[in-house]
Specification:
Elements (H helix, E strand, L loop, with lengths): L12 H8 L3 E6 L1 H8 L5 H5 L9 E4 L5 E4 L5 E4 L7 H13 L6 E6 L2 E6 L3 H12 L12 E9 L5 H16 L15 E9 L5 H11 L5 E5 L2 H7 L42 H37 L6 H9 L21 H14 L3 H18 L2 H17 L5 H17 L3 H17 L3 H10 L6 H17 L3 H17 L3 H15 L5 H17 L3 H11 L8 H21 L2 H4 L9 E11 L10 E3 L11 H19 L12 E2 L1 H4 L5 E3 L4 E9 L5 E14 L2 E4 L11 E3 L2 E6 L3 E11 L3 E13 L9 E7 L23 E6 L8 E3 L30 E12 L9 E12 L3 E9 L8 E10 L8 E13 L2 E3 L10 E2 L4 E10 L6 E6 L8 H13 L10 H5 L8 E11 L4 E11 L9 H9 L9 H11 L3 E6 L3 E4 L7 E11 L6 E7 L7 H4 L12 E3 L3 E6 L4 E10 L3 E4 L4 E7 L7 E2 L7 E6 L3
Parallel strand pairs: 1-4, 1-7, 7-8, 8-9, 13-22, 36-45
Antiparallel strand pairs: 2-3, 5-6, 10-12, 10-14, 11-23, 14-19, 15-16, 15-18, 15-20, 17-19, 20-21, 20-22, 24-25, 26-27, 27-31, 28-30, 28-32, 28-33, 29-31, 33-34, 35-37, 37-41, 38-40, 38-43, 39-41, 42-45, 43-44
Helix pairs in contact: 1-15, 4-5, 9-11, 11-12, 12-13, 13-14, 13-15, 14-15, 15-16, 16-17, 17-18, 18-19, 19-20, 20-21, 21-22
Length: about 1250
């Protein structure tokens, strides 16, 4: 991770401290000397300033003889008349130093989980602190800002340069004798004087003039030569311009600078040093070097010796009895009681000040260890004297000396801390406390003690100066950042931004808030984030950074905001105003494109596209097909039902299904858009449903809403983004006038357009005007747009193999040529059937549709799908569909219970007895009354047919909860396909043929599972009914509160012949079992045997009473017919009939209790074993004769056994379990 350098300077902390305390040299110039320098567009001090830092090392010796080497010594030259600016001007200079400072390049720094984009340096802070130190008023408690020397400058053009020097010296002496506390301030009464003559070579030989001056006066002035403007013109191509020249940086470009690129207004950027040659510049450098090496340093060396002797001789001596008394009896720490002592003034020659002078000389000239000793000694004296201002200054310089000597420790750091608090709290001098803080924090940061540095910086913030507080808070924030204290960094950066804003430094305020937001973003601190966004937006707007301002205000318009509705409404109005300001500054080309607005939000996942004709308007007596609309359910099961219906229709129309069946799509959702591109027919509307979300607390008002599109037809692309009269020739766009969205609401919006040409249309978004309120006088409104794209999650699968995968894709719709469009309307009564011919455009036809109500009671829906084709086989789409759903409520009608039993009285073929119970389920107190009339009963079967043996009343009408019982008989009639047999139940015996056909059609569908193709349960559990379906047809008069109506109905009841008769003994045996082994195969074996015993049924045909004269003839012989019925439909049977005596009756007949009173004492005549062959479901007759020896009642079935087996099989014969209920009464008659 790169190191985070906060307030990084071009100088190290040591260099910064050295530059803060440079030797001060005064300059006195005559007017002619200044005039000579002005030829170079410079005054004398400006001439020297760029070269005031020596490039060579200089040396001096301390009192011990130790040589002190000074590297890059800098001397500050000031005009002797210079005065620190007054407070208003000083504040102006400080503000200008910040606002005019250059920007710093930002760099990305990784701090924990954050990647922060922050400046690599803060040149505005460096500029401010340099200015702050420069405008500071010199104080009497220190001598670093006092003049050590004075340079007297005259011109060779002066009438008498020697006399001029004398006058300047007198003026200097007069200034030195001014009252203490007045400016300028001098380091001592005996300062160094240095004489300089400025000479223009045009005015003569400067060497001659210098010699004359040396003879006239007892000084050795230095000469400074310069060229005239005329000579400068001759050498301007080889000149090294003065470093202060504004065009000096361009010199490196040389002749590459074009004339047109040069400044057009030379008056504003006049170059400096035009009359200076290279030799002149070197002379200036030499002047400063010689002044420093030959004069200033020897003078300083001498002063150090003098001051050192004074300090050594007078060390420990008090200047007065009063001072000694104070040292013994006064506290030695600064406090509130010592405020008055701040006014203590030492005499200029007092030992305490001499120690301070010595320390300042050591410090300014690089002897830091000796400086620390001097300051340490001075601070003890000041502490004892309670001279707290002097004490604070000595502590400050002692701490800096230790740092510069690389001997800093905890104690010396405490010196600086105590110095700052003394300046601030005791002396009430915040300017010196600020200076000490600036110097101290540089030392602490260099030592990586960033926490202490931050606290010192924060302490110096106050209401006195917003600019100072802002700069120090910003530096404190960077200290916290260096310490990885991220939240403190962000918090103090916000505070800095706030103070910058109060100081009218908008640029820096904006910068601070942007840096802080990098931490507050996505933290959930919504109110803090809102404050930052709002301030960034306001400051950026004031700086005319409109893009940034709009972006910040747009972030305030989000659903996560916890602001009140009124506050959000204010944010919205300010956003619209700032966006309006931005649009005014854009070029005409940019203004043609509408901006993207942040509200309302578009839920892309709810996007739906509906292509196709609109539903026709309803007319009296006609109900148009519901078709597909945006309210159609997205339930997968419902969609699957429609798709299955479509598949059935295609199979019916085409004769077979295509290799890959793809349902026709009219309503496109997001899931469908990822798989197929929408197709629309020219001149038919395209409707797009959008769900808009207003997550704000305040209402939103939208006007003039319409779709934005671009149309591509034959290599011509046109868009309605830019309104043009030609766009209506391509696409007709419909406009929604206005909608209002309440706070925290969602609203579905349907926008539509109609393509008029074949091509490709791309839906780019929708355009609308967003207003601040619904008031007609509200002027805050902006016309903007929102883009419509298919979300990434729905395009990822299609683009996973595409290296150029985009996060979103455009919504494109293919427009195809015209296609037939059929509309469907439902009448309650229809008359004309559909002929099957092709319909011409505009033609209408009608047809009948009979609908069977669902089986479940309550609300239900019936789906109808109509299929029609395009005559052109290669057209797209190949076919079209019309959907319609009936929503209805199914009420209770009739309940039918049917019991079926094989008849034992068959005469020719097997017969079936059917008992029906029909009940009207309508409740007596129901609001809807139903009266049911039974019309007809029928049987649809391929094995049975109804007989006419039925007697019924003229009409069978059932009121609420009434029932009717009907007995029917069917006989065996085996056919290859089901046939319908019926019996009317009313005397009219009339029926509508179309209704009869409809009844029968529904009945035939009930024979197969196709009717229940959408019900998986019905399909899986469907079981073919071999015996047939009983049909009950009825009509009902329904009376409700509104009207009366007649409805027709039919009940389908599957029948199954009941041939099972429980054996009482067997039932008792099963019930008596207490333990059942689940692994025992007895149960399965019994079931198999039971099935084998029910393959043939039989009954006897005989008279019920026979009269016989037993006196005349002892035996009564009666002929009997035995009818054998095959009741299986899949195999031929071999049947064996055995007639036996009573003694050989099977146990199966012994258990029959029905004929316990009937006698079985009779005999059969003829062959006792008869073999017959039965075809499936056939009947055969066996002729038998029975012999009775006396009168009585006889059970004829008691002595008959019937066994069967598969024909031509070796399986054993199985005795059949059919019961014969046939009794014969023999009556004896006399002759």
């Amino acid at each position: 991770m790169p190191e985070i350098n906060m307030a990084q300077c071009k100088q190290s902390p040591q260099e910064f401290i050295k530059n803060a305390f440079t030797p001060q040299v005064a300059v006195m110039c005559t007017p002619l000397a200044e005039k000579c320098c002005q030829k170079n567009n410079l005054d004398f001090i400006e001439l020297l300033q760029p070269f005031s830092r020596l490039n060579n090392d200089v040396h001096y010796k301390d009192p011990t003889g130790l040589t002190i080497s000074i590297r890059n010594l800098k001397v500050t030259f000031l005009d002797i008349t210079w005065r620190p600016p007054q407070t208003p001007l000083a504040r102006k200079l400080l503000n200008s130093s910040v606002s005019g400072a250059p920007e710093s390049r930002n760099k990305i720094f990784q701090v924990g989980k954050y990647k922060l984009d922050i400046p690599s340096s803060t040149p505005w802070f460096e500029s401010w602190r340099d200015t702050f130190l420069r405008v500071q008023y010199p104080s009497d408690h220190e001598f670093t800002k006092h003049f050590l020397a004075c340079i007297l400058v005259v011109s060779s053009s002066d009438n008498t340069p020697a006399e001029t020097f004398v006058h300047l010296t007198q003026s200097l002496n007069q200034l030195q004798s001014t009252m203490p506390g007045k400016l300028p301030k001098w380091f001592s009464s005996n300062i160094l004087k240095y004489y300089v003559i400025v000479h223009d070579n045009v005015e003569g030989d400067g060497v001659v003039i210098l010699k004359k001056l040396k003879i006239m006066i007892q000084i050795r002035p230095n000469a400074l030569h310069s060229k005239s403007a005329r000579e400068a013109e001759e050498v301007k191509n080889v000149l090294n311009y003065h470093p202060l020249s504004p065009v000096n940086e361009d010199l490196s470009l040389g002749d590459l600078i074009n004339e047109e690129d040069k400044p057009k207004n030379p008056a504003k950027q006049q170059p400096h040093g035009n009359c200076l040659s290279t030799e002149d510049v070197e002379q200036v450098k030499l002047l400063i070097y010689e002044f420093t090496r030959s004069c200033l340093l020897p003078y300083i060396e001498k002063q150090i010796v003098i001051l050192n002797d004074i300090v050594s001789n007078k060390k420990g001596m008090s200047k007065s009895l009063f001072s000694a008394t104070k040292r013994w009896f006064s506290p030695n720490k600064p406090g509130a009681s010592s405020v008055a002592v701040n006014n203590l003034i030492y005499s200029p020659d007092s030992p305490e000040l001499q120690i301070r002078r010595l320390g300042d000389l050591y410090f300014m000239f690089g002897h830091y260890s000796s400086a620390f000793q001097a300051y340490h000694l001075a601070k003890r004296d000041y502490n004892m004297d309670q001279a707290w201002l002097y004490y604070a200054g000595a502590l400050e310089m002692a701490a800096l000396s230790a740092f510069m000597a690389n001997e800093s420790n905890r104690k010396t750091c405490d010196y600086m801390e105590e110095s700052i608090t003394t300046y601030l709290n005791t002396c009430k001098m915040p300017q010196f406390a600020t200076r000490a803080t600036i110097l101290s924090t540089e030392c602490l940061k260099h030592q990586n003690v960033f926490g202490d540095a931050a606290h010192q910086l924060i302490r110096m913030t106050s209401e006195e100066s917003d600019l100072r507080s802002a700069l120090l808070l910003e530096q404190a924030a960077y200290c916290f950042l260096q310490s990885k204290m991220i939240r403190k960094y962000a918090f103090h950066m916000v505070l800095a931004g706030h103070r910058f804003s109060k100081a009218a430094q908008r640029k820096h305020s904006l910068k601070c808030y942007k840096q802080a937001y990098q931490i507050y973003e996505n933290t959930g601190w919504d109110l803090a984030s809102d404050h930052i966004h709002y301030t960034i937006g306001r400051q950026a707007n004031n700086l005319q950074h409109f893009d940034e301002a709009v972006d910040s205000f747009s972030k305030l318009l989000n659903g996560g905001s916890k602001q009140s509705a009124q506050q959000q409404a204010m944010f919205l109005k300010e956003y619209l105003t700032i966006l309006g300001n931005k649009l005014k500054t854009e070029s005409e080309a940019d203004q043609l494109t509408n901006p993207i607005l942040p509200v309302p939000e578009l839920d892309s996942n709810s996007l739906k596209i509906l292509v196709g004709p609109t539903r026709p308007l309803s007319t009296p007596g006609k109900i148009p097909a519901m078709g597909i609309n945006f309210n159609s359910t997205n339930d997968p099961n419902t969609e699957s039902r429609w798709n299955k219906l479509e598949e059935m229709l295609i199979q019916e129309a085409e004769g077979s299904l295509p290799m890959v069946f793809k349902p026709l799509i009219t309503l496109y959702t997001i899931n469908k858009l990822e798989k197929s591109k929408p197709i629309a027919v020219v001149s038919e509307p395209i409707q797009i449903s959008l769900q808009l979300v207003n997550s704000l607390q305040t209402a939103l008002h939208l006007k003039d809403i319409y779709l934005l599109w671009s149309f591509d037809s034959e290599n011509e692309v046109i868009s309605n983004e830019i309104l043009d009269n030609k766009i209506d020739d391509y696409v007709k766009t419909y406009v929604t006038k206005t909608i209002t969205m309440e706070g925290n609401s969602k609203q579905d919006l349907v926008l539509s357009l109609t393509p008029l040409l074949v091509g490709m249309i791309t839906i780019n978004g929708f355009c609308y005007t967003l207003t601040g309120s619904n008031a007609p006088t509200d002027t805050s409104f902006i016309k903007g747009k929102q883009l419509i794209n298919i979300p990434e999650s729905n395009t990822k699968l299609n683009n996973q193999n595409n290296c150029n995968n985009n996060s979103k894709s455009q919504l494109e719709i293919k427009i195809v040529p015209p296609a037939p469009c059929l509309q469907f309307e439902k009448n309650h009564i229809t008359s004309v059937p559909l002929t099957g011919n092709v319909l011409e455009p505009g033609q209408t036809t009608t047809f009948n549709i009979w609908v069977k109500a669902p089986n479940s009671k309550g609300p239900n829906a019936i789906d109808l799908l109509i299929y029609y084709e395009n005559i052109d086989k290669i057209s797209i789409p190949r076919y079209r569909l019309i959907r319609h759903s009936w929503n209805l409520t199914v009420q209770e009608s009739v309940a039918v219970d049917v019991s079926s039993q094989a008849s034992h009285n068959s005469k020719m073929v097997e017969e079936l007895a059917l008992a029906m119970k029909i009940t009207n389920l309508n409740k007596v107190h129901n609001s809807v009354l139903t009266e049911v009339m039974l019309l007809n009963v029928g049987l649809l079967s391929k094995n049975w047919s109804l007989t006419k043996d039925i007697v019924t009343p003229k009409y069978i009408n059932l009121h609420s909860q009434e029932s009717a019982h009907i007995l029917l008989k069917a006989k065996r009639a085996v056919k290859s396909a089901s046939e319908y047999s019926s019996i009317p139940l009313n005397s009219d015996k009339k029926s509508i043929q179309s209704l009869t056909n409809t009844y029968l059609a529904f009945a035939k569908k009930a024979e197969s599972p196709l009717l229940n193709i959408f019900d998986d349960f019905d399909c899986v559990n469907y079981k073919e009914n071999k015996d047939g379906i009983l049909l009950l047809q009825w009509k009902a008069l329904v009376i409700d509160a509104n009207n009366k109506r007649v409805v027709n109905g039919q009940c389908h009841i599957p029948i199954e012949v009941n041939r099972k008769e429980e054996d009482v003994l067997q039932l008792e045996r099963i019930l008596s079992d207490t333990v059942i082994d689940i692994n025992d195969k007895t149960v399965m074996e019994e079931e198999r045997i039971e099935i084998a015993q029910k393959q043939v049924s039989y009954n006897l045909v005989c008279p019920s009473i026979v009269q016989h004269n037993f006196a005349k003839q002892k035996l009564c012989i009666v002929p009997i017919k035995l009818l054998l019925h095959s009741i299986i439909d899949n195999k031929d049977l071999s049947v064996v009939v055995n007639t036996c005596e009573e003694s050989v009756q099977s146990s199966i007949n012994k258990s029959n209790l029905f004929y316990t009173y009937a006698s079985s004492s009779f005999s059969w005549l003829g062959n006792s074993k008869i073999i017959k062959t039965l075809k499936p479901l056939s009947t055969d007759t066996v002729d038998l004769s029975v012999v009775f020896s006396g009168p009585g009642t006889y059970n004829l079935g008691a002595n008959i056994q019937v066994s069967c087996s598969k024909l031509n099989q070796t399986e054993p014969y199985v005795l059949q379990s059919c019961q014969i209920h046939s009794a014969l009464i023999v009556v004896n008659i006399d002759s």
